[in-house]
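quick one, two chains, predict together pls
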Amino acid sequence: MGHNGGKGIPLVVMRRLPVYQRYLDELARLDIDRISSPELAKRIGITASQLRQDLSWFGSFGLQGYGYNVRELLKAINSIIGLDKENPMILLGYGNLGRAIAGYEGFRRRNFQLLAAFDTNPAVHGPSEYGFNVYDTNEIPQFLDNNPVKIGIITTPAETAQKMVDLLVAHGVEGIWNFAPVRITAPPGVCVEHLHLVNSLMTLSLRLNQKTPVNRQEN
Amino acid sequence: MGHNGGKGIPLVVMRRLPVYQRYLDELARLDIDRISSPELAKRIGITASQLRQDLSWFGSFGLQGYGYNVRELLKAINSIIGLDKENPMILLGYGNLGRAIAGYEGFRRRNFQLLAAFDTNPAVHGPSEYGFNVYDTNEIPQFLDNNPVKIGIITTPAETAQKMVDLLVAHGVEGIWNFAPVRITAPPGVCVEHLHLVNSLMTLSLRLNQKTPVNRQEN
């Protein structure tokens, strides 16, 4: 039911799906078969009724008194997110951030495959420690024409990010995951998800700063 | 007015503050003195009335027909977030992710200072390319007792993340920015901001997956 089931889902619910996926994935790996909606809601930090309301979009899972079947629910959510099929990706920029992402846990288990990385620096070309090859940036077009790539990850310097995005889009990539600290634009139909490291840090600072002055002085 | 001004601000508005800060900071760096609320709202992707409503929490800035004074508004938001004073940080774990964060643009300009990094690997100890020193992990307690540190950044492997958090908290750090892909716990009064890379990637996948099958096959 994945795609059709997903059609009517409100954006706010869609934004919570990855959170549900992470918790259910954790429970499944702990071999927990069932969980009650109050307990799952508590772990996620929302109300049980909110959780039931959200999950009702994907079918009927909870069984009165029995709670949710963890694997069944995880399977449905995975299919909505698109984790039930392969999600081939390439990495543009193979510096520290690129390497960090290449080595990040939890991608492969969710069916995200890193096919290759590209960098202008010849010193990093060749086989990577993570199995894929690192090629020169000028090989991107040929690679994209010969390989199905859903997602391009931008970890280049800010100055080259837009150029890389245009190249990806020109060769059919419809998903851009951007880490470069610069606003990039893409034509309609292309999804750009921008990870703003500094937003997350500012949110932490804001939360610290909104504590009482006394607490802050104790810091 | 920063702290007291922030007291009553709803969480949902507080979550949007970093976004406002980034755009206003960009405008200020482009030497743009004034911007109309419709234009600023459009750049941020919300409605002008939503923007006016949010900003009304920080004082009265917009002038009918003149728009907002960019620097004035930025200054007020910076003070709410806590960017008007120094925010000393340390980095726990100096692998690829740690290095990527150390070299990330936009932190220092916002008054976030990286004082030191700590790693168990002797090979990375000593002066870093970013000015600070990299010490052995067992030097953390002494460093924290001798230096004011507001924020500890966790880029260690998942297995050691909680141990590092406990150590930071035991020595008075009240802000934890966690990149380790594991749930960590901290006592009340300690703010933990967890950056889930995989959430962001799953959101992108979900958006791609919710397009019409036709579009997806063209991918």
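Strands of chain A lie at 34-35, 68-69, 87-92, 112-119, 126-127, 133-136, 151-154, 175-178, 191-194.
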